[in-house]
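Hey, I was hoping to borrow your eyes for a little while. No rush at all, and the record is pasted right below:
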Amino acid sequence: MHSNIFQISTEPIEKKRYCNPDDIDGGDMVSLDYAYDTKTEERTALIRSLVENILPQGMFTLNPDTETLTYNGGMAEWKKKYVADIQRHAMEVDEQNVMKWIGKAYHLQIAIANPLDTACLFITEEYAPAEHSRELMLMIDRLQEGEQLYIGAILGYHF
């Protein structure tokens, strides 16, 4: 299957610092066969999809330059939902299912590691591996309203 890897930072990312598909490593619990460049003409649509379909609704505005996102707030409300989801998954883990290969404990791990429940991966630090959405949400948690996220490379990947 295929999805995308977004390089995202709280600082502008120069093109020469964009991630290279040949240098991408997967982080914890990430299955990554290979990465590849996306087409330049797809870039704006992928960023728009990030804002409209992946990130929590209303949390970001896509700026006219289509390369930056402005944080609108909403993290406190989102964290309440995130904690409730983790607690719901934790309540489903018991002695009978805790050791099952893909059982309730695994679903709890995924709920923690990938709170946005997306196949997209995120690189939030230079030279860091591609990670599930928790790393991105940790970055967002440090933002103040009005601050921006900068989009670097957008790669496709197969898993």
